[in-house]
């Protein structure tokens, strides 16, 4: 590793990344240092983002929260943030031990795109949008901004270009119940075997659900979402019968953990049961909130 640059603004960070195409941006460094220690990554240079105050908080914007990519899991887990985006706050509190929550950031969770990233299914269910900053803008700074759905980046359909980094995440403020749940195993402390982000959107009479950790990116069981939304009395009591909750869980599990041959492997059956239980419980909690 040859150099570390510590910009004080996004403009300076973009300039540094543009001048050093091989440099890697780093905030908390929890995923990056794990990769370095494992011998999987040897960055020629680092651009540290920890001094950029503009990405360490959030602001309101036309019915949305514009979240800075430098927000730590610990900060998102606090009550004032939880009042805005409860599911994302729950995911942040579940992100690991205190040292990980204190260092790890929202932007890092997205950029590393690890399948077990706790924030990812919540952001997918919320249909969050990334604000990408990079070179090429007009004016004195020469910094441009563009927006892409978070699901596009996670799916690899549109990767970050040279000199770009995640500046902000725009999340709709639904003012409606939302839930994050995960099941952990023996793969590491707090690491998800499966997770679910589920939100109700009464204005659109919709249910949005994303399953994490079972695939390289969060999965949206769209048919299951549409089916269960059609059963909900959006103008009255939103509760559903236990049989409907059970069927929703099975519908989600079948969509996200498909058969991989006959007979179905025991591990696949166990994962499918886990996803079914998480989806059922998440919907039940959201409807009873």
TrEMBL record:
Entries under InterPro entries matching the protein: CO_DH_flav_C_dom_sf, Diverse_Substr_Oxidored, FAD-bd_PCMH, FAD-bd_PCMH-like_sf, FAD-bd_PCMH_sub1, FAD-bd_PCMH_sub2, Mopterin_DH_FAD-bd
Keywords carried by this UniProt record: FAD, Flavoprotein, Oxidoreductase
Name of the protein in its database record: Oxidoreductase
Residue ranges occupied by any FAD-binding PCMH-type domain in the UniProt entry: 1-176
Record-linked PROSITE patterns: FAD_PCMH
């Amino acid at each position: 590793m040859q150099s570390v640059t510590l910009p004080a603004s996004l403009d300076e960070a973009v300039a540094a990344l543009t001048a050093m195409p091989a440099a890697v941006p780093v905030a908390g460094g929890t995923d990056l240092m794990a990769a370095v220690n494992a011998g999987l990554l040897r960055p020629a240079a680092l651009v540290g983002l920890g001094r950029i105050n503009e990405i360490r908080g959030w602001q309101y914007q036309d019915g949305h929260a514009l979240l800075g990519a430098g927000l730590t899991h610990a900060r998102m887990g606090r009550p004032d943030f939880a009042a805005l985006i409860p599911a994302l706050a729950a995911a942040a509190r579940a992100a690991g031990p205190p040292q990980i929550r204190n260092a790890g950031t929202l932007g890092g969770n997205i950029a590393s795109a690890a399948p077990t990233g706790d924030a990812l299914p919540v952001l997918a269910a919320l249909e969050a949008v990334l604000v990408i900053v990079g070179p090429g803008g007009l004016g004195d700074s020469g910094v441009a901004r563009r927006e892409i759905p978070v699901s596009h980046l996670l799916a690899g359909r549109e990767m970050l270009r040279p000199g770009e980094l995640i500046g902000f995440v725009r999340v709709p403020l639904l003012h409606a119940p939302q839930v994050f749940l995960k099941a952990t195993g023996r793969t590491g402390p707090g690491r998800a075997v499966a997770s679910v982000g589920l939100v109700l959107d009464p204005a659109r009479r919709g249910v949005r659900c994303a399953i994490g950790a079972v695939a390289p990116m969060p999965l949206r069981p769209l048919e299951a979402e549409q089916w269960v939304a059609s059963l909900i009395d959006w103008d009255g009591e939103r509760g559903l019968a236990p049989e409907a909750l059970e069927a929703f869980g099975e519908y989600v599990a079948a969509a996200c953990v498909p058969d991989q041959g006959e007979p179905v492997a025991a591990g696949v059956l166990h994962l499918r049961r886990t996803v079914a239980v998480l989806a059922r419980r998440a919907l039940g909690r959201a409807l009873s909130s």
